């Protein structure tokens, strides 16, 4: 019912539409970009970046969200750096499934902890992360993608890992 597939160029139309949705733009504090601009970002920055991995979340075999993991070239902590679920698919357990997928992905690669940052005004994300067992480790001022200064929270969680894959 819920599955995750690595982001490919053919997924960029869905991703551009998702990230240009008004409620997603507001929650992520991003600016609207055209499909061609998103495609350019994918080709120039994301496609061959070894430090990050992108996934499309499918619900009932239809694309329903996006997950971005980074810090993969690091040693101890992997980061969930973006999570967006299409508004029509929110409140169906997809966010929790995405966080679980992220944790398993990081654990399978030998990371001992995972981290997530979100802005102070994103109470839905904060609630999700707390329900998934994350604890706030830091509160600090940040500048969002759309240029606003606001407080952000950094959440951490220790993983049970057996260093399954050598990186």
Topology overview:
Blueprint: E1 2-6, H1 12-19, H2 22-28, H3 35-46, E2 52-59, E3 62-70, E4 77-85, H4 94-108, E5 113-119, H5 123-131, E6 135-143, E7 149-158
Parallel strand pairs: 4-5
Antiparallel strand pairs: 1-2, 2-3, 3-4, 5-7, 6-7
Write structural notes for this entry.
- The structure is a single chain.
- The chain is of the alpha+beta class and 167 residues long.
- The chain has one domain: 3-Layer(aba) Sandwich (Aminopeptidase), CATH 3.40.630.
- The protein has 5 helices and 7 strands, in the order βαααβββαβαββ.
- The chain has helices at residues 12-19, 22-28, 35-46, 94-108, 123-131, and strands spanning 2-6, 52-59, 62-70, 77-85, 113-119, 135-143, 149-158.
- It has a 7-stranded mixed β-sheet with strand order 1-2-3-4-5-7-6, with helices on both faces.
- The longest helix has 15 residues, at 94-108.
- The protein is globular and about 35 Å long.
- The mean pLDDT is 93.
How would you summarize what this structure contains?
The protein has 167 residues and is an alpha+beta fold. Helices cover 31% and strands 34% of the residues.
